[in-house]
Amino acid sequence: MPQPAEPALSVSELNRRARLLLERDFGQCWVEGELSGVSRPASGHVYFTLKDDRAQLRCALFRNRARFVATPLKDGDRVRLLGKLSIFEPRGDYQLIVDAVQPAGQGDLLVAFEQLKQRLAAEGVFANARPLPFPPRHLLVMTSPTGAAIRDVLAVLTTRWPLSQVSVIPVPVQGREAAPAMIRALALINRFSQADGRFDPDRDVLLITRGGGSLEDLWAFNDEHLARAIFHSRLPVMSAVGHEVDVTLADFAADVRAPTPSAAAEQLVPDQRDLMHRLSQLGARLLRAQRGRLDVEAQRLDHLRARLRHPGERLVQQRQHLNQLEGRLQRAMYASLAMNRQRQQHARARLRAFDPTQQLRQAQQRLTLAQARLYTAMPRQLENHRARLSSVVRELQAVSPLAVLSRGYSILEDDKGHVVRRAQDTQPGQGLTARLGEGRLKLEVKRRFSR
Asked: pLDDT digit string (tens) for 163-214?
């Protein structure tokens, strides 16, 4: 190798000279771009990246300047920065030391994200809300096999629910190939669940996850086709992409969203420690209930044992009771027989008092007397009725109009049968009928006189 013509510089000396040269010659400038990867450590400083569609620049906003920024900085904001270029010597990072921040509108990526989100929401792509089986029989984790997300998920599952069956679906989670790879994996999983039943939608869950990052790092999860593939998945999908503040279209299209990979694992499975504690509590309750039941049954057994007597003593009591019942039965039988005997004697006396032969003889005597009285009263009654009839006939003849007619009077009647009482009621030439004591005469009015 060629020998150096002059002594070599150390890395720190080179970075120091570059920083001094850059700060002295370039000075302050305004730069416009989109914020990404905004970070706020406990020191109060704000670190972020300013980018456009072709390049990016590291930036640092120190605490003494950050307190004058009215609106908190967030990913996707488009801003104008006033600052000076410098180099962070320990790492050799080229950066902009920011003195002032002015808003310049929303970032292009954020605008595109909001437009696509609104369109997919209008189409119903975000309408999934299927309940997840708890705990799932088989958990499929679609993520990078070397990322921090899978380590966090497996760590939580190991601690909370070691019985989980987990299958890792390795896919890239960043860059241009990430979204197509996840779409192909989703299609393969759904084909297996539909063709041979290898995956059961009622018992298995698909978790799509990755760790945090900038908006550009997570942009693969904002792919329109990936969101549609998640929406049409037969398996229920949980999405856990980035940190709590990170929201992607995959989160909206999934059935359930978790803020972080660790939180997703906690939502998917129960905590064995809680179950063990619950089981311990139930065991203690069962033991207390068992002991209480045994105490109650022991008291009941003691009570029954106190009531239990020797069978011979019980037989003696039953024999005495039987003798008492036999004596009561005999006394009741004798009393009943005596009462029936008295009732029989009383009925016999009443029967003798009401002998049918004597009653029949008395009735025969009364019948004979009634017949004699009838035979005596009938002729006398007939004679009385004859006398009354003759008297009525005489009275009837005395007032009968026929008797008057027999004395020479007559009754005149017109052709209608009406009795003529006055001469004025007739007309000359009118035909009349005269009814005599015996027979009738046809007359004709020749002339009438008023007197």
From this structure: 888 999 999 998 889 999 999 999 998 887 765 667 788 888 999 999 887 7
Residues 6 or more apart in contact with residue 432 via CB below 8 angstroms:
412, 413, 414, 415, 420, 426, 442, 443, 444, 445
Assign 48 to helix, strand or coil.
strand
Model-level pTM greater than 0.70?
A: no
- Token pair, residue 396, equals 């009837």
Domain spans of the chain, in order of start: 11-106, 112-270, 275-302, 405-444
Residue 120, H or E segment: helix 108-123
What is the sign of the dihedral through the CA atoms of 344, 347, 353 and 357? negative
| Amino acid (1-letter code) at residue 310 | H
Q: Are 150 and 208 in contact (CB under 8 A)?
A: no
Vertex 47 angle, CA 46 and 49, to 5°: 135
Closest among 157, 163, 184, 21 to 89, alpha carbons compared = 21
DSSP strand pairing (28-39 vs 411-413): unpaired
Residue 79: burial class (beta carbons within 10 Å; 0-12, 13-18, 19+) = buried
pLDDT digits (tens, 9 = 90+) for 382-423: 888 889 998 888 888 777 777 777 777 788 888 888 888 888
CATH number of 11-106: 2.40.50.140
| CATH label, 112-270, candidates 3.40.190.10, 3.40.50.261, 3.30.1360.120, 3.30.70.260 | 3.40.50.261
